[in-house]
Amino acid sequence: MRKELNLIPYQREILPEEEIATRCDIFFRMMDKRRSVRSFSDKPIPDDIINQLILTASTAPSGAHKQPWTFCIVKDAIIKEKIRNAAEKEEYESYHNRMSEEWLEDLAPLGTDWHKEFLEIAPALIVVFKRSYEFDANGNKRQNYYVQESVGLACGFLLAAIHQAGLVSLTHTPSPMNFLSQLLQRPPNEKPFLLIPVGYPDPGTMVPDLKRKSLQEIAQWY
């Protein structure tokens, strides 16, 4: 017998097309100003604001509504220092021994290297973990579905929320990232997915002059 569904009315105002077009344009113009920033101010962010950003991220869709994510907020200076030291160790190895010449050439216009001082300067680090499975009340494993895709969507929502709030962020992926599980003492069902410093830009921050692909390059109509 099919399980009875627990449904509620969908509540969303139906807007005229003109209003939809205006909202699309406003949101695009706002998001088009989003940039990855590596020069942070140490100005603190209230905890309530960070919590609200994470709540927005948690509205992302997920496989079977399993919500397979954990957001760890790191503000403690000692832990941030440990994260920086561990990340720089991995990044040094990557830049000197792991990355191909082609990869290094592609990174050159961005001006990046193995130094990650922003991990200590930014007032908060949001470390996103993906949860490959859960445990039920009896201690049995319960599978999560489309974990990579679901957590990726949540991170996208989070980056948009950060930018909309007037803050800046960076998607940092030191590889491998197992040190984050160890430093934050996360359970075995969680694996690090993304490390996101969040804060205000340092006064005088400069970013590479990048051009995004045109609509014709990224979209195909059928």
The overall pLDDT, averaged over residues, is 96
Briefly note the structural class of the backbone: alpha+beta
CATH topology: NADH Oxidase
Distance between the termini: 40 Å
Task: Provide the CATH superfamily.
Answer: NADH Oxidase
CATH architecture field: 3-Layer(aba) Sandwich
Shape: globular
Give the tally of β-strands: 6
Indicate the low-confidence ranges by residue numbers. Answer: none
Order of helices and strands: HHEHHHEEEHEHEH
Can you describe what's shown?
With 222 residues, the protein is of the alpha+beta class. It has a single domain, classed as NADH Oxidase (3-Layer(aba) Sandwich). It is 39% helix and 14% strand. The chain is built from eight helices and six strands, in the order H-H-E-H-H-H-E-E-E-H-E-H-E-H. The protein has helices at 17-31, 47-57, 77-98, 101-107, 118-121, 147-164, 178-183, 215-218, and strands at 69-74, 124-131, 133-135, 141-143, 168-169, 190-199. The strands form two sheets. The chain has a four-stranded antiparallel beta sheet with strand order 1-2-6-5. Strands 3-4 form a two-stranded antiparallel sheet. Helix 2 crosses helix 6 (147-164). The longest helix is centred in the middle third of the chain and has 22 residues, at 77-98. The model has no long low-confidence stretch (mean pLDDT 96).
